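Researcher: Next entry in the queue.
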Amino acid sequence: MTDTRDLVARNAEFAARRFAPGLTISPSGNLMVIGCVDPRVDPARVLDIGHGEAAVIRNVGGRITPTTLRTLAMLGVVGRAHAGTRPPGTWHLVILHHTDCGMTDIAAYPELLTEYFEIPEEGLPDKHVLDPRESVRADIGTITATIHAPDFLVSGLVYDVDTGLVDVVVPETALSTG
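Model: Structure for this entry, 178 residues:
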């Protein structure tokens, strides 16, 4: 078991060797990744994202849910409050799903999924919880129907837990301005 003592020692090592002072609240890469909580799929590690380069949101399945959309809206407020720290350029939102996701185990519990996605049961097939490539496409569809912003790209990736490689399912796509 990893205990608090281990974590404090690891933090001391991080602070001594890898801490990057002067980072701002705005990601230096104008990048946000939404991924799964699965410990095999840490977006910063599997995409080799540097400290401070991206904002990372993790939830069950890495899915775009009403809660995720509310979180994005809140982060938009934070971003506007710190507009002076944002690097110029296009913002990139990456949806990262993966193979062998525990979300597939939840498919047998439609009552959990309807609550999670805040939809009626007849809408569950559209969420494609058994197929990570189709679930990425579904979530990209939700994002493109919801977020309308200039200088904003969205893409969808699937990480293969057996090979360590990602597959681009939806290439970078500009969002409309509404």
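Model: The chain has one domain: 23-174.
Researcher: Noted, moving on.
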